[in-house]
Amino acid sequence: QVQLVESGGGLVQPGGSRRLSCAPSGNIYGINAMGWYRQAPGNKRELVATITNGGSTNYADSVKGRFTISRDNAKNTVYLQMNSLNPEDTAVYYCNAYGSSYQRRPYDLWGPGTQVTVSS
Is the pLDDT of residue 56 over 90? Predict the structure, then answer.
């Protein structure tokens, strides 16, 4: 089965920047949108940002103006540029892709997650 592969997590100081990347391990048919979600200890998983095939973006209020999502549709690769990071951004960040298969069956893929820790 095709898997989503995430990279770019790690330790960053408050006010710093980090870029996350996510790409499938193989070909995926029928992706409608890709995005990033995060989950901090004790919290539920929450949306960070999404981007459609047409380039429409959606951001959580908490990251607007600081994070930027982008996508290379040809490679089905999604990026998350994170600026002005603060400790509240510390979480496991998950990549997501959803769409419909060749057989018109919906799917919702998730990466294994990458840890982002914002600390001095």
Answer: yes
